[in-house]
Write a structure and sequence with these properties.
The chain is α+β, with helices and mostly antiparallel strands and about 525 residues long. About 35% of the residues lie in helices and about 20% in strands. It has a five-stranded mixed beta sheet. Strands 3, 4, 7, 8 and 9 form a five-stranded antiparallel beta sheet that branches. The protein has a four-stranded antiparallel beta sheet with strand order 11-12-16-15, with no helix packed on it. Helix 1 (about 10-40) packs antiparallel against helix 6 (about 130-150), helix 2 crosses helix 5 (about 100-120) and helix 6 packs antiparallel against helix 7. The radius of gyration is 29 Å and the shape is globular. The N and C termini lie far apart (about 80 Å).
Length: about 525
């Protein structure tokens, strides 16, 4: 080649290779960023940071649709969606670089800046260092793209252009393939190093020995678990307990270094508690059903577990907190999680005698990481978004007028007591049972009020009383069964419950926003 050789005129093959170069450069950017994030903070990686921003800024209707459509896989779907969008953009940037080489590299850096801004603006960001993974990853990707496109745009000698084209493309593919292999190794190393950062947290959980409760939960009464195939178990196993939160990366916190700070104008002074402090207090054990406000009528986001912890009200009193009914100036607890989530809980309900807990045990084991290890908050009778802060690290005792917690500006109600609900677990929708006795069964819940009655209706016939399982407590759900003499044909089964105050579950169907769904659950079956 000489300086007088003309530059390449891009061909169709060049464009395909340029798009491939954009994809490889994007892949390298993410892999290098993951490696750097392992040394900074796994949550500072661009995929996690940008995903968190998407969750925070997405319209509530979109979030509800994602939860309804994808369930607990919504975060995986989000991350896959981000990767697909990034792949499309990376290919487009590769094509841009084929015409404007520097502009293509600059565009990669611009994406790095976006990731950096997302990382440092996250509520759990610790410092400007969180910007490094995105910026370093983008720099690596931009440099690679510039080099790869340079291979395609290399001048060619007029004497043998075809041979030069083939050599340039081989060089392009060699650089792209070797760099992708190295990037894969870097990404794997980053994940491995990120895992080692969590070793202390995992070890602290494995070493934790739960104290014996001073006030143990009574044994689940005989008859609480009905022997009906297909009905939800009375105690939900940890692995099956629903998980709805905004964390793309589950926080893993070392129990030995965990601290809970309680402060605010509603206290007489700031206090800090360790897990050891909590476990030295009077420990209580209670069966409590939790429900998510995103749970639609008949939905799966409700579960019942045996929790171990300490009474939140006792700790608040030691901090000088008084409920509004006793003249206290504060009416809201703002609980903050390590992932930046804020949850606003009424002080009155927390201190009215119900078993509001700071829990560190679940079904006989330390809390799973997915469910808030080392400590989470829960208040019977309130939806999780106003009571059940996982990975809690801070409680500010303040007022509703002074602060709106995370979900309130997004259209959800400030206060949200659990609505009376009932669900048909069996038969499943569109089931085809045989004629004769069919066991129609499920669960009903109205935490802190209890369930007094469940009724079932077949088609438009009269309401019939279902048989109730034994009541554990008013804070747990209750199983029920109705022995239906089914006749052939298509039928609609409907259920409703009456709570412990005598209030009948409303027929009026509402969406989950702003304070929980309502309406009767129905199932259509065909009897053969």
């Amino acid at each position: 080649m000489t300086l007088s050789d003309p530059p390449r005129e891009p061909t169709r093959t060049d464009r395909l290779l340029a798009a491939l170069g954009g994809l490889v450069s994007g892949y390298v950017s993410l892999a290098v960023a993951e490696l750097v994030a392992a040394g900074v903070r796994p949550e500072a990686g661009p995929l996690t940071a940008v995903g968190g921003e998407v969750i925070d800024t997405a319209p509530t209707a979109v979030k509800n649709w994602a939860i309804r459509t994808f369930g607990e896989s919504d975060k995986i779907v989000l991350q896959l969606g981000i990767l697909v969008v990034l792949a499309i953009l990376a290919a487009a940037v590769g094509l841009l670089a084929l015409r404007y080489r520097r502009a293509g590299a600059a565009t990669v850096m611009a994406f790095g800046v976006i990731g950096a801004l997302a990382a440092v603006s996250r509520p759990d960001s610790e410092s400007a260092v969180d910007a490094l993974p995105s910026l370093v990853g983008a720099a690596a990707g931009a440099f690679l793209l510039y080099v790869l496109i340079g291979r395609l745009l290399a001048p060619r000698p007029s004497s043998s252009p075809d041979r030069a084209d083939a050599a340039d493309r081989r060089s392009f593919l060699l650089v792209a393939a070797s760099t992708a292999v190295v990037a894969t190794g870097a990404g794997a190393l980053g994940r491995a190093l990120g895992g080692t950062r969590n070793e202390d947290a995992v070890a602290s959980r494995e070493a934790l020995r739960l104290p014996r409760p001073a006030s143990a939960a009574p044994a689940v009464p005989p008859g609480a678990q009905l022997r009906v195939p297909g009905i939800s178990p009375f105690i939900t196993p940890n692995k099956d307990f629903y998980r709805v939160d905004i964390s793309l990366v589950v926080p893993k916190i070392d129990a030995d270094s965990w601290r809970l700070r309680i402060h605010g104008p509603g206290t007489t002074g700031e206090r800090t508690f360790t897990l050891a402090d909590l476990m030295r207090r009077e420990v209580i054990e209670r069966d409590i059903t939790l429900a998510c406000v995103s749970n639609e009528v008949g939905g799966p986001y409700v579960g019942n577990a045996r929790w171990l912890g300490v009474r939140l009200a006792d700790i608040l009193r030691e901090c000088g907190v008084k409920p509004p009914s006793a003249g206290g100036p504060a009416d809201q607890l703002v609980a903050r999680s390590v992932d930046g989530m804020t949850i606003g809980t009424p002080v009155e309900e927390t201190m009215d005698g119900r078993d509001a807990l700071l829990a560190f045990g679940m079904n006989g084991t330390p809390l799973p990481f997915d469910h808030g290890f080392p400590v989470r908050m829960l208040v019977p009778g309130l939806y999780g978004y106003v009571s059940a802060c996982k990975w809690i690290e801070d409680i500010e005792v303040t007022t509703f007028d002074a602060y709106d917690a995370y979900w309130v500006p997004r259209g959800w109600a400030r206060e949200a007591p659990v609505k009376t609900q009932s669900r048909i677990d069996t038969p499943r929708p569109l089931a085809r049972p045989e004629a004769g006795t069919v066991m129609v069964a499920g669960v009903a819940w109205a935490q802190h009020r209890g369930i007094a009655r469940v009724e079932v209706r077949v088609d438009e016939g009269p309401w019939q009383d279902a048989e109730l399982g034994a009541e554990d407590s008013q804070d747990t759900w209750r199983q029920w069964v109705y022995r239906w003499q089914a006749t052939p044909g298509r039928h609609t089964l409907t259920v409703r419950a009456t709570d412990g105050t005598g209030a009948v579950q409303t027929e009026r169907r509402t969406d989950t926003m702003p304070d929980g769904a309502s309406g009767w659950h129905t199932v259509v079956v065909t009897v053969e």
